[in-house]
Amino acid sequence: MKINSPLDAYKYLPGTNCGRCGEDTCMAFASHLIDRSKSGEDCLPMVEEDKYAKKLEELEKLLAPEIREVTIGTGEKSVTIGGDDVLFRHKLTFFNKTAYAYDITDTMDDKELEERINTIQTFKKFYVGEFLNLDMVAVRCVSGKPETFADTVKKVIGLTELPLVLCSFDPAVLKAALEVAADKKPLMYAANQENWKEVAGLAKEYEVPVTLFAPNDLDLLKSMAKTFAEMGLENLVLDPGTFPTGKEMKTTFENFLKIRRAGIDGDGEVAYPIMAVPLTAWMAYDDDVSASYWETVVASVLTVKYGDIMIMHSIEPYALLPEVHLRDTIYTDPRKPVTVDPGVWEVGSPTADSPVIVTTNFALTYYTVESDISSNKIDCYIVVADTEGIGVEAAVAGGQLTADKIKKTLENAKFDLKEKTNYNTVILPGLSARLQGDVEDKVGSRVLIGPADSGRLPGWLEKNWPPQDK
Amino acid sequence: MSDKLKLSDLNNILKDLDVESLEGVTIEGDIELDIQGGGGMNPAMAYALGHEAAQISLHVANIARMLGYPVDQLFAQCLGAGGEAAALQTEPAIEELLQAKFDVARSSEWNTPIQEVTLGATSADGGSRDHTITLGGEKAMPFYFDAEMPNRNYVTMDVFDMPISMAKAVKSNYEDVMGDPAEWAKKVVNEYNADMVTIHLISTDPLINDTPAKEAAKVVEDVLQAVDVPIVIGGSGNPQKDPEVLEKAAEVAEGECALLASASLNLDYERVAKAATDYGHAVLSWTQLEINAQKELNRKLMKQCNVPRESIVMDPTTAALGYGLDYAYSNMERVRLSALMGDDELNFPISSGTTNAWGARESWMKQSPLKEDSDWGPREYRGPIWEIVTGLSLALAGNDLFMMMHPTSVQVLKEITQTLYGNIEAKNPDITNWITAEV
After folding, report:
1. Can you give the pLDDT at residue B19?
2. Which residue from A169, A313, A317 is facing B375, i.e. has the nearest CB?
3. Which end of chain A is more exposed for a tag (fewer CB within 10 A), N or C?
4. pLDDT at residue B18 greater than cutoff 50
5. pLDDT grade for B45, boundaries at 50, 70 and 90
6. Which one of 1.10.760.10, 3.10.310.10, 3.20.20.20, 3.20.20.60 gives the CATH number of domain A70-331?
């Protein structure tokens, strides 16, 4: 965006502090415009009253992200890519996670095609309270025949709601597919140096987003982007080519860095989402496991550094699991501490003889403790105190983890230690040892000090649990 | 069938349609409209005719413009200001690519190189290593085009002083050497291409074997005998015992310029620092995902303990993929960016305990404990890639030295980091028509 201080945005707001946006003041609202948690349209007076129309328009121009957003597909499953404003995620956050497309071809038999699509669209992996999924299907024209490709695209549309990438360099092939798929707003792949005029015509005629492909030629890529924009085509995706190995791969990485840096720094002519094709790893490796591994490696590098959409081939779990997790890692908003719900939670099947272990609601702490315990098949209760998403050491120092907090957590969960357990004992994290006396007084239980690292809980419990005297 | 219509006939037609006629217009030449289909003035026909008439009016307007008549003004008056553009806009027909030159600036903010730290000492410098390894020296973010990266990334592989429990996929590589740290060290160097070896003296933990420091130090001697690469000496992680263990180990390794792992704020870091300075080693400054704590510890090591700058490596903590890697990644990236921009309390090479990836259940569990999850597939492939992706993401955040465990992970991580470093020659496939590739 072109402005970076709430004051800059405030100038365009009504300044009436009407509160209809949910904020007390226009200044508070302005700061949410800058951190992109709210948009201009959330200011209802500006939307409703004509006298603000011009200011709203100006404001939205200033607030528009540096990297253009491009939407592919329709309905619930549609994906939006691009939209970034920073080069490093800690400076704000990255928006619109990288869209992962997996390929199918028009030479696959129906059974294989159905199975692949089924795997792609049903894949799910639980993570911090939700499921990670895959986003798109890329249909490659290998047959070279427009009608064969169109038939396959039709089949794919019948099988899945996921947005599509239609891949061919032959305008006749692309046209045949668009005839059956244009209303699904697929991404057309791709215009290149030879076919760009015809492909631009198709993008215009069918009103679909289009990828520009100029392998390792940033001048050509920029020239095409400029030309398409001049023709009124701005739903563009840039593919500088993904060379899978050697020095060319280093150049590929540098091309991604260069395009994104130029875009964020204000070169509007290349400020579009970038596409990677890690699938090319399969052209460099013969055996499936090596190819899949290298594809995941290339995808990882380009997920971290600026790929907004990518096409991959391997649908093996050992490819998909690290890919979706890494993408989540990079696109998680670093400004929000990740928390879990406070309460008393069971791990395994605890009984009255099981230990009661205290931790924080910082997701990382919680999941670490939880997995340390569950992976050792220990049955226990975990008391998750609401420390506002702060880890043990800092929460003790900052007063977010206190005896009162622990007491309140037990009370809210209606967990009476004397009634539910035989030992009336809680185990505090080693890093909160200094709360011992306080917890004994407030909670009225015995307090044991556990290890500083929950990785040592299994060994510690072996020695210290059950407590010697009841 | 096709009717021919002369422009001069328009007047009559437009009259019928209740539209102002084109009075006083005389047309030179013979403009004809081709109208497909039969007579009558149905809406489609009227639309088509209107379109053609508009085209003609543009044509006529152009003639008028050529004659110097202010046509645009007239159109503006007739149609209202907003209508003008819409009425006259035509799409630019572009026949040739508009040429553009791509250009991007090099970063001007990165003006301070990372401190170089050399590990290991050869006989020339009073040690017995075959070669040394230099970490750091970067003047830009890793593998960026802004400045040449002077030193590649290195991998040190874990060796333990006792048999330990580990993921099956890892264990299968070490069953023959577990319990013999010297053989273990030889195996990782000779067979798995480790750049360095980390000997973890975990048996010294009072909660494990409580091996006396002096006895543990002997294992360090064995490892130094067995291999000639630079080494890292690790304690058990017990904050009470570690300073003593590292002290004794540092003493027997005097002059070898090992990396002592680690000094941290929750143990007697002064004692660890002193062991490093007294016996000629470097020290690993370890903090937990907190940039300010990292600054504080580095400052204390430099100012309070007089550890020279060229003897400090940092470990800002590695959390596994899916278990806080987002914090670890951004923490490291911030550390490195601050260093490049001149923060001399953070300006050191970085080390990652990439082995932590094996703590993620995705890396070792046979299958997902959740029945809602899609099949996790064979774990022998899942584990190594978990370690690779964890390390690789940190390589991009600025990490220099990787502490790792699985031979496949080491091999692939070295391959990709050295590819990005520019060290790998390979013949690339022709990707210009990747779409039709047989894969």
Report:
1. 44
2. A317
3. C
4. no
5. low
6. 3.20.20.20
Is the Cα torsion angle A186, A192, A198, A203 positive or negative in sign? positive
Distance CA A82, CA A67 (A): 6
Residue whose C-alpha is closest to residue B362's, from B387, B397, B394 = B387
pLDDT of residue B92: 59
pLDDT at B30 > cutoff 90: no
Test A293 with B98 for CB contact under 8 angstroms: no
Q: A369 is written with which tokens? A: 């403790």
Q: Cα(A147)–Cα(A150) distance, rounded to whole angstroms?
A: 5
Token readout for B380 is 């022998």
Q: What are the start-end ranges of the H helices in B341-430?
A: 361-364, 379-397, 407-421
A297 contact residues in B (CB cutoff 8 A): 388-389, 392, 412, 416
Is B385 in contact with A293 (Cβ distance < 8 A)?
yes
Residue A258 near residue B104, CB atoms below 8 Å: yes
Q: Which two tokens stand for residue A274?
A: 């970038």
Name chain B contacts of A329, Cβ cutoff 8 Å.
321-322, 325-326, 329, 393
The first and second tokens of residue A146, run together, are 């427009």
A 34-73 residues inside an 8 A Cβ radius of B: none
Q: pLDDT below 70 — which residues of chain A?
A: 129, 337, 469-470
| pLDDT at B24 exceeding the cut of 90 | no
Flag whether residue B209 sits within 8 Å of chain A, measured between CB atoms.
no
Domains and CATH numbers, chain B: 2-88 (no CATH), 117-421 (3.20.20.20)
Top mean-pLDDT range of A66-75, B10-19, B34-43 = A66-75
List chain B residues with CB under 8 Å of A141: 435-436
pLDDT at B123: 97
Helix (H) or strand (E) holding B43, with range, is: helix B43-66
Q: Using an 8 Å Cβ cutoff, are A145 and A118 in contact?
A: no
* Cβ-defined contact of A124 to B327 (cutoff 8 Å): no
Q: Say if residues A277 and A242 touch (Cβ distance below 8 Å).
A: yes
The larger pLDDT score, comparing residue B20 to residue A403, is at A403
Residue pair B382/A319 in contact (Cβ under 8 Å)? The answer is: no
- In CATH terms, the fold of domain A6-63 is 3-methyladenine DNA Glycosylase II; Chain A, domain 3 (1.10.15)
Token duo for residue B169: 């996929």
CA distances, B156 to each of A14, A54, B253, B394 (Å): 60, 61, 17, 15
Mutation site, A187, A245, A254, A298, interface B, largest B CB count within 10 A: A245
> Residue B39: exposed, middle, or buried by beta-carbon count in 10 A (0-12, 13-18, 19+)?
exposed
Q: How far is B29 from chain A (nearest CA, A)?
A: 33
B positions 308-337 inside 8 Å of A (CB): 319, 321-327, 329-330, 333-334, 337
Burial of A317 (0-12, 13-18, 19+ CB in 10 A): buried
Residue A382's contacts (CB-CB under 8 Å, 6 or more residues apart) are: A344, A345, A346, A347, A357, A358, A359, A366, A369, A370, A373
